[in-house]
Amino acid sequence: MTTAAPLTASPLLRALRQEPGDRVPVWFMRQAGRSLPEYFAVRGEGSILDAISDPDRATEITLQPVRRYGVDAAILFSDIMTPVWVSGFGVDITPGVGPECAQPFRSADDLARLRPIDPDRDLRFQTETVRNLVNELTVPLIGFAGAPFTLAAYLVEGRPSREYVHVKSLMMGDPDLWHRLCDRLADLAIATLTAQVEAGASAVQLFDSWVGALHPEHYRRFVAPHSARILATMADQGVPCIHFGINSGELLDQMAAPGVSCVGVDWRTPLAAARARTGGRVALQGNLDPALLLAPWPAVEAEVRRVLADNAGHPGHIFNLGHGVLPATDPDTLNEVVRLVHAEGRADGGAPEHRET
Ligand code: 1CP
Q1: Positive or negative: CA dihedral 232, 233, 238, 242
Q2: For range 74-79, the mean pLDDT
Q3: 206 has a pLDDT exceeding 70
Q4: 30 counts as catalytic
Q5: 243, 82, 261: which is closest to 147 by C-alpha?
Q6: CATH number for domain 5-344, candidates 2.30.30.240, 3.20.20.210, 1.10.1790.10, 3.40.50.740
């Protein structure tokens, strides 16, 4: 193995510290998986959990987009439901649907099905995958977990949802049980993230994908304390943390909580507005609309330039999509996006008229 430059000087980790650097780092949520032909060659049939729990396959799938695109980070190939699955709650990930629970969480009795996990025993496959990856990679590995609200949404609804009727009913109707559930889910997130960091992950992302379904006051009362516990614990471990949600423009200020290095911004909120809302305390990750990647290249190119201009050269920018890569995306388009961001992105404080004083 050749001796690589220390990862602390990598564009991703510099951006997470809001330090100027040579270039704007870029990676894509869901860069592995469904948009890559080489993924289908190794994924195998059946539940994605089979591939996730096989370190050789999970390692290979994680590396595929790094090789193909030259992105500035790898993200562990896993799923937000993995810790819930190993806890024995009873969840599967159905191809074409997503996470499903045959018996959704509806009463205090269901807490018993969500037993605490022991990462040394229950997540050995994950630790092995992370160790393999850290040996191979010359870019940082991002570990991740699902945040309590988004995990609870699957457990309580039993499947992907649009309205979140059951989860909101539980939150409002039985706040005590809601908080006990979120406490367990925060413990699962802390256990899985800690195991990933101890095995060598350089940064972590807390996915609260569906939290934009909530009013900011409900977020403050029912969700923020649980996510805050996870974020503070990871900050104590000295690992930079990205906090992500969709449709979360109204929540960004709260999501830039203590311990957060960076918030994910979806395409509905301009980066300049996101920076104002978070008071410049955190770096920003985003925010190209993933649907636009299916438009003709000149439109994609203009949008990439617009996102970069919106950031105005601020050092704390990680170029990404506002949500995951859609399955129909042409991988060649992502290659071109990486090339363009690396060529045009500035992480040096920007043009004089944009420079902050
Ligand atoms: O069978 C398959 O190939 C199914 C597709 C798939 C993949 C590739 C699922 C099912 N999960 C994954 C891997 C995955 N999931 C990754 C690693 C890949 C990468 O990013 O490169 C990550 C980070 C996740 C995280 C995840 N799973 C989130 C958070 C990110 C997001 O998209 O908001 C969520 C919400 C899930 C749940 C989930 N798992 C799978 C699906 C189809 C879904 C979403 C279902 C829904 O609409 O609610």
Answers
A1: negative
A2: 98
A3: yes
A4: yes
A5: 243
A6: 3.20.20.210
